[in-house]
Amino acid sequence: MADAPARAAVPAAELDCTVTNRDVDLRLAVPAGRRVAIVGPNGAGKSTALALLAGHLRPDSGEVRIDGHVVSSPRAHLPAHRRRVVTLEQRPGLFPHLSSLDNVAYGPRARGVRRRDALARARTELDAVGCADLADRRPHQLSGGQAQRVALARALAVDPELVLLDEPLAALDVEVAPAIRRLLADRLTGRAVALVTHDPLDLWALADDVVVVLSGRAAQTGTVEQVLARPASDFGARLAGVSLVEGTIVDDDEVHTPAGDAVTGVRAEPADGWRSGGRAIATVDPRSVAIHAVGAPAGPGALAGNPGGPSGSPTGPASSPRNSWSARVVAVAPAGALTRVTAELRDGQRVDAEVTSRSAAELSLAPGSDVMLVVKAAQVALYPRP
Predict the structure, then answer these.
(1) Which residues form the domain of 148?
(2) Which of 80, 85, 173, 257 could make an SS bond with 247 (beta carbons 3.0 to 4.6 A apart)?
(3) Could you tell me which of 14, 36, 29 has the C-alpha nearest to residue 194?
């Protein structure tokens, strides 16, 4: 007798629903054992997604499923306190009148675990986050980092099916955040996690997959590497630290912007979807962009940046083609020795350049300055629009 076919893995959580008054129509999944970052601009629908998963919001249509079971729809709704879902937010939210030990034991006790067993589990979880010696302290006696560690112990003490992280590091000092990020990465490995964050460091440290949410819709989904290597939106490009330029394919290695500027680059593999007349995206690393002051005399002060790379020159050999785009500076943001310059192409698309602050001063770069952006073709990545 033939073996029965293997049962497809059931995601730990799924959203396929709408919330009309928030203009949200979301479809996303959190696979079992995977950590999924939900990213997007303010107001895009990230908090709505977490509220739907947690049980604080009910959809107008569609369903929310946890471990394959419908927990929320227009016809039925399992309240938050009956779901095996926990949320870790910017503020730890510990009960002020309870010790750290009792805070962590609260969840198991609320689920019917005997006090002795709940306290034993709480001690185990506190030890796992490095807070065993803080068991008797109340929240007001803890530092911000210590309180967040205790909050993580409390969250995991109930063996949740899903962990929700709502920017848990945003309220921490920059000196404390890296240690908490490492702790989260360690303690959440192998768990189903939905994470909302604005910090690219959180993506690399805490997430396996990314869902980019724009205007209440999932605009792009993939692994962290896939989404940051090939962003499909301006938001995704900013998250990846690159500029995104869109246009129409005219050749194997050339795209034209709506204003007619030619963008030459290196086409990413595979070649599927690359055809003349199709839409394409070019990504440009700000560090690879050089700025020429329009009308400036030739010389060291006429160029900011290094389009040829560490050993290149502004003109370079004929075998190393370069893009040259007319642009106007719209923003200049000094940051110590470097300055981030944002310039608009003729069609309004924006390209960032990272130059030395000395060069920016020598070129008198300021909003309204007309410039020429120069980028080596080998430093521009091309791929068809998803």
Answers:
(1) 13-226
(2) 257
(3) 36
- Judge contact between 99 and 150, C-beta under 8 A: no
CATH number of 307's domain: 2.40.50.100
pLDDT of residue 308: 46
The reply to whether 5 falls in a domain is: no
Q: Residue 133: which CATH number?
A: 3.40.50.300
Segments of the chain with pLDDT less than 50 = 1-2, 4-7, 297-301, 307-319
What's the confidence (pLDDT) of residue 90? Answer: 87
Cα of 140 vs its chain's centroid, Å: 32
pLDDT at residue 313, rounded to an integer: 38
User: What pLDDT sits at residue 29?
Assistant: 96
- As a whole number of Å, the CA-based R_g of the chain is 25
H-run or E-run covering 63: strand 61-66
- 185 shares its domain with 269: no
Q: Are residues 259 and 221 in the same domain?
A: no
Residue 101 tokens read as: 């030990």
Cα(29)–Cα(221) distance, rounded to whole angstroms? Answer: 10
Q: What is the DSSP letter of 297?
A: P
- 71-102 per-position pLDDT tens digit: 999 999 999 989 999 999 988 999 999 999 99
Q: What is the side-by-side order of every strand in the sheet holding 13-19?
A: 24-30, 13-19, 61-66, 69-72
Q: Number of folded domains in the chain?
A: 2
For residue range 127-153, list pLDDT tens digits in order. Answer: 999 999 999 999 999 999 999 999 999
- What whole-number distance in Å separates Cα of residue 102 and Cα of residue 48? 31
Q: CA 238, CA 158: separation in Å to the nearest integer?
A: 37
Q: Could you tell me if 126 and 100 are in contact, meaning their C-beta atoms sit under 8 angstroms apart?
A: yes
Those residues with Cβ within 8 angstroms of residue 10's Cβ, 6 or more apart along the chain or in another chain? 32, 67, 68
In a domain, 237, yes or no: no
Q: In this structure, what is the dihedral angle of CA atoms 102, 106, 112, 113, given to the nearest 10 degrees?
A: -40
Specify the pLDDT at position 118: 95
Edge-to-edge strand order for the sheet containing 350-356? 303-304, 289-293, 370-376, 322-335, 338-345, 350-356
Which secondary-structure segment (H or E) carries 243? Answer: strand 243-251
Q: What is the pLDDT of residue 262?
A: 96
Q: Where do the H-state alpha helices sit in the chain? A: 46-54, 100-110, 115-128, 144-156, 177-187, 200-206, 224-229, 234-240, 357-362
